[in-house]
Amino acid sequence: MFWVAGREEEAMLWLLSVSEMGWLQSVYRVLPVYLSQPTKSFSSRFFVSASKPQPQFIKTLTKRQTRASCASRCSPTTWARLLMARLLMARLLMARLFMNWAHLLREDLWQQVFPVGTEWDQLDHVYQYKWNFSNLENAFEEGGELYGQKVYLFGCTEPQLVFFNGEGKVTCIPVVVAVASPFPPSDKIGINSVQREAEEIVPMKQMKMDWVPYIPLEDRDSQVERLASQIFILSCTQRRAGLRHLKLERVKKFEYCLPYFYQPLTEDELEQSTIVQIIFPAEEKPVFCEFDWELDELEEFTDKLIEEEELSEDQKDAFKDFVKEKVREGKRANREAREARKKALEEMSEDTKAAFQSMKFYKFYPMPTPDTPDVSNVKSPFINRYYGKAHKVL
């Protein structure tokens, strides 16, 4: 169920029926019994009957205790009024609890999507604001962009300078990308960064990631195989608590991940690229540069690096041999990619081709609210180097 304005009463009735609320129902059943014992405070009675920790607002609202001496002096009429007042307070407290769970219901979908490629120590900063993704939820309602479609969701973050309360600050903005497709867009993850010599394309499961069905809160007690889910989210089972047991290189791999996508119907820009990344292990410091085998002349390129003191004269020949090898690797990779695409097209069914042609990407940014920075000026259709640009930004 997705939250829509005007369905608050329906949500309240639903919340009363779910199994997780059984402890609240037990509170309500035993509350009159406890209230009939004037020697105990309302606060202690409430917390004895509740089996789970309560929010701070309950502690604040129930600070004052009802003393036995006061209750013993009350007339029956006064005591009845006091009892009714306590019951009313109990109803208000439970209403606050219900609204709290309703808020979790609204926020649940986007928070379930793993923000791929986000540094582990930045995850807390992503959730420091109560971001509003009602546009994502509404897209699944009747008349929305994603209504009735099979959708695959993955998350990412975009560090941007945004203003909040008159102050500019670089903020990790959460973004959710929705891929409308009859099948998973990919089962692989790209691992790349400027520090790495070459990119890796690995199976998602190698990085503990996979497409899993999104189960709405009201169906969490049901068996997954009985649910005909139309929404799948990219999930990661790696927990931050377990990072200390991993090598630093393995931890960093998670931060260099990019959701991978290959469109066999169009020639990839990587197939056309004539640029190779050079990381030459020089004596004093590595040489980082890009070499274009169509535009750059190797001799002039090397002399310029020596002139700029990026490379020593005695390493000139070794550097040239290194670049030549990288160029050969680049050309071979381009050739293999073109051959792989050609083979994939030959083996592809007409239904699969039609599915690739109709596949759409939607990029969702948080909606503006008084409690969050305004991101309307930093929205971009670009997703990543594999997916390219979104068909629509919301």
UniProtKB/TrEMBL annotation:
Origin superkingdom: Eukaryota
Record keywords: Coiled coil
A GO biological process held by the record: regulation of cellular response to heat
Ranges in coiled-coil conformation: 298-354
Name of the featured protein: Uncharacterized protein
UniProt lineage: Eukaryota, Viridiplantae, Streptophyta, Embryophyta, Tracheophyta
